[in-house]
Amino acid sequence: MQVLIDLTSLAxxxxxxxxxxxxxxxxxxxxxNRKDIKYILVFKNExxxxxxxxxxxxxxxxxxxxxxxxxxxxxxxxxxxxxxxYYFFPAFPAxxxxxxxxxxxxxxxxxxxxxPSKNKKYMIAYFKIMYRKAAFGKKKVVTVSEFSKKRIVxxxxxxxxxxxxxxxxxxxxxxxxxxxxxxxxxxxxxxxxPPKYILCLSTLEPRKNLKLLIKAYDELLQNKEIDIxxxxxxxxxxxxxDLLNNLNKETVERIHFTGFIDDDLLPYVYRNAxxxxxxxxxxxxxxxxxxAMSMGVxxxxxxxxxxxxxxxxxxxxxxxxxxxxLKEKIINILSLKKEELNTIKERGFIQAHKFKWKTExxxxxxxxxx
Length: 370
Known about the structure:
Elements: E1 2-6, H1 16-30, E2 38-44, E3 57-62, H2 67-79, E4 86-89, E5 103-106, H3 111-114, H4 121-135, E6 141-143, H5 146-156, E7 163-165, H6 172-175, H7 181-190, E8 197-201, H8 210-222, E9 229-233, H9 249-253, E10 255-259, H10 266-271, E11 275-278, H11 287-294, E12 299-302, H12 307-311, E13 316-318, H13 323-334, H14 338-352, H15 357-368
Parallel strand pairs: 1-2, 1-4, 2-3, 4-5, 5-6, 6-7, 8-9, 8-11, 9-10, 11-12, 12-13
Helix pairs in contact: 1-15, 8-13, 11-14
């Protein structure tokens, strides 16, 4: 049996969607007890370094610059010439003009319907078309939470039996974390981490609702209710240039932007935080708070979308988009006794380690490739 996996998206970006594609594929290649499967991995411009020396797959490289042209012309043209039993698209849906009945697409969320004000208009239109096509007929679909599955059933009228939930997992750097003093020092120095800080990590874009967190932080700081720095980590997305407008000078000076954080140093940025805040208004799953929990960091999270499903009883929730409730939760967590904080940390650690890439990869493989 030949299974083709599209990894071309790894050349363009690296957010949670691309991480899912990378990690689930890595585990599929080493999963045991299915010697009948041969994997074909398709890359854009170059083979991703994690797969260069892999003996369990054939690597194919396609070339192109323009993203739309590559995804909708070059990629489907090439795929039509490659014979496989299954074609798996773990990041984004199969190209519009690729019609193989055994194409299996991932739809991580349906934010283009559920949260349109937080996305660019042309991207909303594009993904509505692509998701409808991916869900049409009896083709299988993969998504990352029961929440997203229900929304796909409701919006795209997809048969629930044709949708498989494959959760995100903890990357090796978190799941098998080994403390290293030199890496911790490097993280503190490279990202100029303050001694005490609130952490939020995400792509800096409207859907992540960073404006709410910054407003809450500003008001608490100006009212002398807290005395702690705020670290915003993650690559810059879109429509966030006005994040610091109309803020007090003292507040601006106490907000730190790290930019994209190297995977080797990321666990140390988490574990040195006093607590983690995730104010997102919409998520298909929600990896950053899970990563924070795995590092023993208490989490305050919005109760939006899939987040209660992913975080269980291990997070402190505030009502989504509720400024007053968020401020109260921040004040409360800073007033907790050590024993209470330890209980929250233990719950978080247990919850985070429920999500294993290996487990999810085997579930996907045995559920879809038969």
